[in-house]
Design a protein that fits this description.
201 residues, mainly alpha, Ferritin, elongated, oxidoreductase, Ferritin-like_SF, Ferritin-like, iron storage
């Protein structure tokens, strides 16, 4: 009888540990994907920056995108450190999809389209963040929930608002004034983020 009870308890314990490891692994994998998306966003912002730090003459927009690139790299680095502190294990740090420049960015020719692509870039990371947050909610991992909310969520909300505000300013004026408002925004961005051409290119 004792042996039977011991066997049942051992089996239940093994099932619980296996289930717990599976949940932990799903969160670890999602955090790994979040790192991949963050580094992808970094390179895509840098690709956008290269469009305007040269001959197109909008260094303020170039500096903005370079700044966003730096921020996404910094956040990806923080996620890696957080994973290490939590002892999250994954088979690789970058997922099999890898880091790539999205094809739509190659075709960007003007600042308005660049803002649209920058928002899409931000949304991809935001979606990955929400996926990881939902997994953390499902497994009652309050530590991960809090980390994602306070460290990353606020950043993506802020970027969305910044880019949307600039889009609206351009869209709200008549066509013959769009070039002027774009120049004014570029000057504001240049004053805020500095001239990154000498630092990056």
């Amino acid at each position: 009888m004792f042996i039977l009870i011991f066997t049942i308890l051992s089996t239940l314990t093994s099932v619980f540990i296996s289930a717990q490891q599976q949940v932990d692994n799903s969160l670890s994998v999602c955090m790994r994907d979040l790192v991949t998306e963050g580094l992808t966003a970094q390179y895509n912002y840098l690709a956008l920056s290269s469009k305007f730090c040269g001959s197109r003459g909008y260094p303020g927009f170039g500096s903005l995108f370079a700044h966003l690139s730096d921020e996404d790299y910094s956040h990806a680095d923080k996620v890696v450190k957080f994973m290490a502190l939590r002892k999250m294990t994954v088979d690789r740090l970058i997922n099999q999809t890898g880091i790539k420049i999205h094809s739509d960015i190659y075709n960007v020719m003007d600042t308005r389209n660049a803002l649209t692509q920058a928002k899409e870039n931000n949304k991809r990371s935001w979606r990955e963040l929400n996926r990881c947050h939902q997994i953390a909610v499902d497994k009652n991992d309050f530590n991960v929930q809090d980390y994602l909310e306070t460290t990353l969520l606020e950043h993506h909300v802020k970027v969305e608002k910044l880019l949307s505000d600039m889009e609206n300013r351009i869209d709200e004026v008549e066509d013959d004034r769009k070039e002027l408002i774009t120049f004014m925004i570029d000057e504001e961005l240049l004053e805020t983020y500095g001239d990154r051409r000498t630092k990056v290119w």
